Amino acid sequence: MAADDPLMVVDSTGTVVEWSRPAEELLGRTADDVVGRPAADLVTDSCPDSGRDTPALRHRDGRAVAAGLRVRPVVRPDASVLWAVRLGTGGEDRAAESGTAVLESMFARAPAGLHVVDTDLRIIQMNPAAQTMCAASAERMLGHRITEVYDLFSPSRVEAMLREVLDSGVPAPERPEPAHSRAEPGRECVLAVSAFPLEGPAGTPLGMAVVVRDVTGIEAAHVRTRILEAVRDQVGRTLDVVATCEDLAQSLVPAFADVAIVEVVDSVVRGEDPPLGPASRNVPLRRAAIRSSGREYELQAHPVGDVRGLPAPTPYSQSLTDLRPRLVALNSETPWLDADPARAEAIRAAGAHSLIVAPLSLRGVVLGLLSLYRTRTAAPFDEDDVGLSLVVASHGALSIDNARRFTREHTVASTVHRHLLPQRPASQTAVETAHVQVFGERGGGGWYDAFGLSGGRTALVVGEVAGQGINTAATMGQLRTVIHSLATLDLEPDELLARVNDTANRLAAERATLPPSDPLRRDPLTASCVYAIYDPFSCTCTLARAGHPPPVLARPDGTTAVPDLPGRAALGTVDGPPFCVTSLDLTDGSILGFYTPALLQATPSAMDTLRRILATTDRPLQSLCDDALYRLRGGTGQGDSLLLLARTHSFPASASASWPLDDSPEAAATARALVRRQLTDWHQPAETVDATELIVSELVTNAVRHGHAPLQLRIIRDQMLTCEVNDGNSTGPRVRHARAADENGRGLFIVAQVADHWGTRYTTDGKTVWAEQILPAR
Fold this sequence. Notes:
By secondary structure, the protein is α+β, with helices and mostly antiparallel strands. The chain has a six-stranded antiparallel β-sheet with strand order 9-8-13-12-11-10, sandwiched between helices. It has a six-stranded antiparallel β-sheet with strand order 16-15-14-19-18-17, with helices on both faces. Helix 8 runs antiparallel to helix 9 (241-252), helix 8 runs parallel beside helix 13 (383-420) and helix 19 runs antiparallel to helix 20.
């Protein structure tokens, strides 16, 4: 017989209408014996041999025959319904029995709470685990809703979820819900609630199955993981020690603690080396940061910034002594509170009941202390929390130490930087100067200069080396020294910057030869600079720049402008167009403002603000500098903010004198007489008059012998006494070393011995040979 052939067919009245050969063989009954009779006559109550209390078929001889039967409806052509009775296979029976056993075992032994609820969301069945979780018997739970037997924080949210499952027929995945534990009163827990619908054969909703698991431990682990991720993400982003401590405290509150206090060894804040562990009792700790989730701020026994030692013995001092964490339960009977009355009072006022103290230590040195409190209704810390606090403290200590190291390097670099800059640029007779400089939070390479040149001229310089740290400060010092050295050669600004660029390229080439492990090798050497020379006799300023913004020019009438200076790539670049020089005519009282780009980074309209400030040219220069800083400096940036102001004037007529000279041998005698008369009018001592006569005589004699007309003599009384002889020949003089018998060749040698400085300045009309003497103090 095929598996789908029926043993018999029964009509709607229960009468057998068809009987098969296999049925005859199974029960020993013929079709004549069965057809037309009730099918109930073929069924007995049970089969003793089957081991199951289930109905069986009756054999002709009266014995019971165990057989699993399946009944399926059969629709006839006339729309009447017959019922086909077939034998069930042994495998199906065993599968059904096995499935039933599995379901029963799972329901009875599952560690999660299993509940069957009806369409009114009332419990009709639950397993033992559910009874344990609710601390209630089955009788007390039957007929109640899930939200009634569990003390959920948000029962309405769970009720809405279950109703959605019932209405939509879509299972709801696990959702963590905070609750109060019924099994352990007073303990908060997290329950994972999920549900799926139960339906009848035709898809009719019967209710749903609701699964509730206590995932407090799992959720706590997830929370700890999130806390650790937050600490790693937020702590260490800055290289400031105090800011790092603040980030550490902020990342722990309120996710892990109600109050977090970070204290560091006071020397660490300044970048100094911390003490080796264990720390002594008297090591000063600075309270660097405190964070609380609410009123617990009362726990602040000492203000932020307070420096003091730790009373002993307390968990705080013990943790710094052995560099191990402490988990402490706090109550009114805690004995060590008497050793620190201020902290004890703050703990009581805040309602703190649980404390973790973890040392901030790294490689055996003590950096500080992390104190975590839980207050009022929060669950106390446990040993798992202690483990997390150690990991957090370790990361915090590493970040604090990185910030400390940077602070030390930044302090050293800033100190070197400041000592390489002029402490107070000396104003010249015709140029007033003032400056303001704010170093960036990571240090920088900004510098400025204002120094005198020959002929009463003044050099003005502002530049910036890219980068931070001591290497940048050293490079800045090198370039500043090079500019000073080249300036003594009386080079024009464009030529001077070209030679400074050559020096920068050589320094960059030296970096490229450093070992690959040296980080300086990977830092490109680039710098920007603007160099200007102001001549107070012609009232002109010649400028050249390399990758630096042009200055702001403010005239006495209140108008301002930014000169259009030809640009060129920054110093340290090999390729690029030649440097260009620009000349500006300045009226008396004009102001030139040189700056670094960082000064104008605060606001988009910073340039307009700077021009408005400099337009008030009648104010003191230092007041203008300060006003510009206050209005433009939005915050500490990456670079140095620097502003150098120079107010220009014409040279006083009473402090200089000039005369044309004939191109003749008598010119030297004439020059000596003119100089003597002028120096006498200036009330100069005889020694100065005699030395100046000798210098002038030699310079004029050389101009007559080796130069061309026109000849001109000028003396300038400034901070130095300068003698200048101008002639039309551009060939430069040189010092000769005459032999003992030579009658000539000693002129410049004599000048070099008598004067303090001398040199040659070339012009479009020839050259000027000058010599300077230091005037005696009066």
